[in-house]
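An example makes the point: we let one protein speak, the chain in one-letter code, the fold tokenised, and here it is:
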Amino acid sequence: MPRSMAPPPSGEFSIRLTKSFGQSPTEKIEIIGEPNRFATIKVTNHVGAQNQTIIAKEGTIQADDVNELLSIVQPLAGLPSNPDEDIYGFDTRIILATFEVQWDNGEDVEGAEAKTNPTEENKQTFKDVADSIQALARQKAKERTS
């Protein structure tokens, strides 16, 4: 039975992207905020032998960029998901928890298409969203200085 994801409290949203679908992550991006307000972004890269070295970056995303990001992730709603297989083929997991969209390509999600293979259009939509999240992370997240 698909898992029902509850929307985040009070309009807050969370967008997470993890590089490496079923293995130890090599990169994690987490964006938390509210629509029409700034958001925080945290990027964690796991590098080196067995991904043991961690490089963390943080930043702030302005309200206009937050609203644009929320519109970019909207098309993922209802796309197929599968907890057992990387059906999109990009070794990437995206977890969305917004007021409008609760979606995770690594979980059975209520409202998502049944365990079916995504169309080429679905795969392109997924890739475009993942690329946009990663580009935003490159622009906004900076290494912490001690």
Notes: The longest helix spans residues 120-140. Strands lie at 13-19, 27-33, 39-47, 53-61, 92-97, 102-104, 142-143.
